[in-house]
Design brief:
Helices cover 60% and strands 8% of the residues. With 166 residues, it is mainly alpha-helical. Helix 5 packs antiparallel against helix 6.
Length: 166
């Protein structure tokens, strides 16, 4: 339900398409900047850049286990969000405003999956953490370069509850 307890309109749910595209454009730019800052060349395609960045900020060192766990959580959420973004961009098949008996939603279908309903509340929750991804990408990138364990912990402390706010 919309914050004001008014029904979610067709225009509002339709606007989530633009929100998803915009947030992913920001995330892709953040990934490319991070890759360059780590001395590498970005690749073509969001998935490739997500995999490249993930490898660059990872480590087998035991003292970096919490950093790697956070990175894995971020990458999992981004991969799922990217799947939904691709389904939205390439397989949207319905839009519905909120009705008395049903929430506002988009219907998408990708690959061989059955149609999936993306309801307003789910999209808003996803957009809330996606809007902070440029910051977490920077934090994880800086932590990957940071040798001092105390400074590294400080960089990542704010993200311990990701995707929820800490």
């Amino acid at each position: 339900m919309a914050d004001s307890e008014r029904p979610v309109t067709y225009e509002q749910i339709r606007g989530t398409i633009g929100s998803m595209v915009w947030l992913w454009a920001e995330i892709e730019r953040a990934l490319k900047r991070a890759i360059v800052s780590l001395g590498h060349e970005p690749r073509h395609g969001i998935s490739r850049n997500l995999r490249l960045w993930s490898g660059l900020v990872g480590s087998d060192a035991p003292e970096r286990a919490s950093q790697v766990a956070l990175r894995d959580r971020v990458v999992w959420h981004l991969a799922e969000s990217l799947r939904l973004r691709n389904a939205l961009c390439h397989g949207i098949s319905g839009i519905s405003a909120q009705r008395q008996d049903a929430p506002a939603f988009l219907t998408v279908q990708s690959d061989d999956r059955p149609p999936e309903r993306l309801e307003w509340d789910r999209l808003q929750a996803m957009f809330a953490w996606m809007s902070r991804c440029d910051e977490i990408i920077v934090s994880l990138t800086e932590a990957a370069r940071e040798a001092d364990p105390a400074r590294r912990a400080q960089l990542l402390a704010v993200w311990t509850g990701f995707p929820h706010r800490s």
